[in-house]
Every structure is written in C-alpha cells, then in structure tokens.
Write a sequence for this structure.
C-alpha cells in the first residue's frame, strides 16, 4: 500500500525525455515508482490528461523577509514552485549585529521595493549569525522548501560597520573576517553567496549598497571562502564595469574553486555589456573549466504601472500630486473622472530629471494596456502610442483612460528591453547551455513588478500559446525550471521524477492553465502592498509527498524545509 499514487498522468520527468503516460507512486515523501501501473495507495489521484511534472525550482527570489511571516510564500507557491532560493543579489537579513537591522531593511526596501514598515513589522530578528537565521526559519512551518545565499551586503555591514556601508575598501583583515562568515554560513547550510555590483541597486536613502565597488581581492575572498566550505553558487548581479574588468576574475574564481557562478548581468549603456558578448565569454571560459551561467528570464523585466503602483505616467506630475495627495484609490478615481481634473492633469508634464524614470513615464510606444489574460508579447500596434493614433486621442489621454479602467485598477505594462516588439531574440537564449532560467524576483519589487508566475508563463506562452514565432518543446521547458535549476544549486534529490527522488511535483491541467492579470493586494504586515498574480490549472502541488495545494486552494499541509548545502 503506497502513501500516494498519481494515476494515468502524462509524465514529463524533468530530464528532457519525451513525455509518457503512467502512474507515479510515493512512499515516505519519496518517489518509489515512475511509469507503468502502480499498486494501490492510501490516497489515489486520478490524472488522465494531466501533466505530471517535478515541482518548479525557482532560484531567484527575494523572500528573505516574507519567509519570516508567510508560510505560503505566495505568489510563488500558487504557481507550482516547490523549492525557492532567496538571498540573491547581495541583499538579505543575516548576519546582522544588533542595531544594524534598520540599515539592512533600508537596503531591501531600496533595492527590492519591499516596504520598510512591512519588513519592520514582519521580521523579529531572532538571530545574529547566518546559521542562527536558518535555524530560526527552520522552526517555522511552510508549504515549500527554501534555500538561501549568504548576502554580501549583510556580511560587509556586519564586519565593517559604517565603513562597509559607505563602500570603503576592505582591508586584508576585513576580507579575512568576511571569509570566515561566508565559510560559517555555508557550513550552516547556505547554498552559496551573493553580491551586487550594479549602480541600480541603492538603499532607500539612494546610497550604493555595500559591496557595489568591492575590489577584486574582496570578491575573490568571498568566492574562495565559498569554495573552501565545500562550494555552492556565487550569485552576482552586475553592470559596473566592462567585460574584462568584471568578468575575468569571475572566470578565474570558478576555474580555481569549482564554484558555479550565476550571473545576472544588467545590460545597459553604462556597462557597455552586450548579451551575446557575455554568452561568448561564458562559452569560452566554460570550455576551459569554468562553470558560469547567465541568468535569463522567460520574459524581460517589466514595470506594471497603475494608480496603485510606485510609478505611473502621471505620478510625477505636480498637478496630479497636489490634487491626489492623501486620497484613497476610490477617491482618486472619483476625482479623476471629473472632466476639469482630467484637463488639468493632462496639461501638466512629468516632473522628473532622472533620465531612466523620465523614459519610463513617457515612452508611450513601449506602454501597453495589460488585459486579462495578460499578453506579455504584444505587437507595436497594441502600444498606447499606436492605439491612441487610431482612437484620435493623445497617448496621455489614452493612458489616463486606461488607468481608470476596472475602477482604477487598469494596468499599463512596460517591458524593458523590448525594442523590436518581439521575444524572438529571447527564444534561443532560454534554451542556451550558457544560461539558467531565473529572475522571477518572487517577493520583491512589490509596487511595480509581478514576475513570480514566470514558471507558469514558460508553459502557457512559450510551450502552448505563442503564435508570433517558434515555441519551446514542453519537455525542454520543464527541464529548464526543474533539473537544470536544481542541479545548479547541487540539489540532486529533486528536479526529476525518478525513483528515490524527493516527491515534489505538480499536476497540471495544461489546456486550462491560465495566468490572470496581476492585481494589487494590501496583505503584507503593516498593510503593505504587493502585486500578486493568480493562476488556474494547477490541479495539485505535492511537496515531500504531501499535497500542499489542490485546485488552487492550500490544504494546510506544511512539509516545507530549509534546504541546506550538503
Ligand atoms: Zn535579485
């Protein structure tokens, strides 16, 4: 008698092998049989016509705060994620000295747009060392497994105090202490170390985050400590310097220590980096013994602009700010429907000097109304600019009316890096051996981004729905976000449906898998807001053999563990 049997599913096992029909049997939280006909079980789930896949392993999230108060870690858990990795991009909450908590919060707020009041209300800081942080999290129940990096910002602040926060150079003694903390963190179970070298990442007070300009000896100190402690992933977001200055030491570090490098390269004018150059560099280095992977997302990062977002095309207008100060959404909507107010707001201009922000609020050729279901790969004709032309309106007028749709909950989608109005160039990148699927940013950018549903999107758009170009085979897509991501982190007990593996899996009604439009909710501690995205079609999610979600509803099972480096 098995604990659980899933009958007659279409099994996509995560290895990339062709899908096949059959049963899956589970005992004691492990898979014991895949394919064929399984014996009887205490619980049997009939799954004819359903996909059965490994649970998604999402390696780029920022749930470092939310993990302390939310056992569901939504929206990721709604989307079939059964293991997530946090502590990316150098930001996180351990180690921490008493008195430094607020500074770490200001980094998280500034970099990841998670409200300070929420983090203050939600995190108890019952730890000082990284190991104590993992222990504190281990004492809590949750629906899925969580792993973490040791975040460089926190380590530098811990060791160097004000000097670290102010980005002063680390001394040899500082670097030795930083290395000790990284080694201890990995021994306690960290899956790697992470760091930020991008000028985009600032604290709430607009200061560059600790470590942004760290010299190569400090970076090598971090990486070598990781290697000495048994290895793991060295995760880095970067745009600071050109290819040679920033990446040569990365290749050396990987070849020397055996550590895997996971690179989130911010491609922009400042860095002079071009994506294809980075890939060529990675291929060259990996042929010589490095193990470097470029993080890529199933769609480019995008801002969601609405009357509830951090930013929208009128939010910087002086008139808008004056007229709307202190008003609730309902009050703003009522006022915006007044033709005089409309005329006043539309006659004003954005009051921003910062080039990037100005572009974000005024590039109407790259603004798109986002419907339900959302279309994330729209044509040029669907842009606010083109639609306004057809409708005989100005783009500002159409924007205004779009924001007022659905009682002021209309959303304007602004993908970054969408110059040619197509994801065609992204398609080969998503399956390239130099890349790793990443960047859902679950838990972060609460007021302007909602990409935690990216694993679902890979299936709905890239495997099933895309009409504007080639799609990605189902088996490949599944492998990319199960075995490949698990393997990067050395998580060899998951990511594949095979006997002996951890029983983490999804049962998916693929024909009816559907993303809803993102929506703003105010359910974070202290009433903080965040975008979430709901989904239909996940029939069941199973973690360690226990059904955690059924037809989109949590069952109450909390089998999630802190995943520790072994
Ligand atoms: Zn990140």
């Amino acid at each position: 008698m098995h604990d659980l049997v899933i009958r007659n599913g279409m099994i996509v096992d995560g290895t990339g092998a062709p899908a096949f029909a059959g049963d899956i049997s589970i005992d004691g939280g492990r898979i014991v049989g895949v394919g064929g006909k399984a014996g009887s079980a205490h619980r049997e789930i009939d799954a004819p016509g359903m996909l059965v896949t490994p649970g998604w392993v999402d390696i780029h999230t920022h749930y470092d705060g939310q993990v302390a108060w939310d056992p569901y870690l939504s929206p990721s858990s709604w989307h079939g994620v059964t293991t997530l990795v946090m502590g990316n991009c150098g930001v996180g909450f351990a180690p921490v000295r008493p008195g430094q908590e607020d500074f770490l919060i200001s980094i998280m707020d500034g970099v990841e747009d998670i409200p300070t009041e929420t983090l203050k209300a939600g995190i108890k800081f019952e730890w000082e060392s990284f190991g104590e942080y993992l222990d504190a999290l281990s004492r809590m129940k949750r629906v899925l497994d969580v792993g973490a990096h040791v975040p460089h910002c926190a380590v530098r602040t811990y060791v160097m105090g004000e000097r670290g926060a102010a980005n002063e150079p680390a001394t040899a003694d500082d670097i030795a202490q930083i290395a000790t903390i990284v080694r201890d963190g990995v021994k306690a179970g960290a899956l790697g170390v992470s760091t930020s070298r991008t000028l985009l990442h600032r604290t709430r007070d607009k200061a560059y985050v600790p470590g942004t300009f760290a010299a190569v000896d400090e970076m090598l100190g971090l990486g070598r400590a990781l290697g000495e402690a048994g290895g793991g992933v060295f995760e880095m977001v970067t745009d600071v310097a050109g290819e040679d200055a920033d990446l040569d030491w990365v290749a050396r570090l990987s070849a020397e220590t055996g550590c895997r490098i996971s690179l989130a390269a911010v491609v922009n004018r400042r860095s002079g980096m071009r994506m294809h150059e980075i890939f060529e560099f990675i291929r060259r280095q990996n042929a010589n013994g490095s193990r470097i992977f470029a993080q890529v997302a199933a769609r480019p990062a995008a801002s969601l602009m609405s009357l509830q977002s951090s930013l929208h095309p009128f939010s910087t207008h002086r008139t808008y700010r004056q007229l709307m100060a202190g008003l609730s959404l309902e009050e703003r909507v009522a006022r915006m429907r007044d033709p005089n107010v409309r005329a006043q707001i539309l006659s004003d201009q954005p009051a921003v000097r910062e080039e990037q922000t100005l572009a974000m609020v005024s590039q109407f050729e790259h603004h798109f109304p986002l419907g339900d279901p959302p279309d994330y790969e729209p044509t040029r004709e669907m842009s606010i600019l083109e639609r306004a032309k057809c409708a005989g309106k100005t783009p500002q007028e159409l924007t205004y009316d779009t924001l007022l749709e659905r009682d002021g909950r209309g959303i304007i989608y602004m993908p970054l890096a969408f110059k040619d109005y197509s994801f065609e160039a992204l398609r080969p990148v998503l399956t390239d051996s130099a890349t790793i699927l990443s960047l859902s940013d679950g838990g972060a950018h609460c007021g302007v981004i909602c990409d935690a549903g990216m694993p679902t999107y890979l299936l709905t758009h890239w495997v099933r729905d895309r009409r504007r170009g080639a799609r990605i085979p189902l088996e490949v897509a599944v492998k990319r976000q199960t075995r490949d991501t698990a393997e990067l982190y050395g998580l060899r007990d998951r990511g594949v449906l095979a006997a002996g593996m951890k029983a983490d899996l999804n049962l998916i009604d693929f024909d009816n898998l559907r993303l809803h439009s993102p929506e703003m909710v105010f359910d974070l501690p202290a009433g903080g807001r965040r975008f979430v995205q709901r989904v239909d079609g996940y029939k069941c999610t199973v973690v360690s053999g226990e059904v955690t979600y059924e037809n989109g509803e949590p069952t109450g099972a909390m089998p999630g563990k802190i995943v520790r480096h072994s």
In short: The chain is about 30% helix and 20% strand. The mean pLDDT is 94.
